[in-house]
Design brief:
42% helix, alpha+beta, 106 residues
Length: 106
């Protein structure tokens, strides 16, 4: 079952905020929510922890690529520092595991 499937079953309500903490499967959930995300452009709070995501064969570049392709910007929580590069994401993970993905305005 994907987020998109459930969103359709629930008659496609407006979604403004999404919170993901799936022990490394966050990117899979984002991919399974593509239609809902495209339609609603919600703010997404998610955990991104190196050991968990690496167990899914993911790297920092995978999240940054998803964000770029979907026109999202990534920020550290709680201080709001932008995460722009793989090195920046690695540094962010040393400080916090929580990220805010915000629709880009450009």
């Amino acid at each position: 079952t994907t987020v998109d499937h459930l969103w359709g079953v629930w008659d496609r309500p407006v979604i403004r905020v999404v919170k993901l903490d799936l022990e490394g499967a966050e990117l899979a959930a984002l991919r399974g929510a593509a239609t809902m995300i495209h339609a609603n452009r919600p703010t997404i709070f998610m955990e991104w922890e190196g050991r968990n995501v690496s167990s899914f064969g993911l790297t920092e570049e995978d999240l940054l690529d998803w964000a770029e392709k979907n026109r999202y910007e990534i920020f550290r929580v709680p201080d709001g520092v932008p995460v722009l590069t793989p090195a920046g994401l690695k540094l962010a993970m040393e400080i916090t595991e929580t990220l805010r993905l915000q629709p880009a305005i450009y």
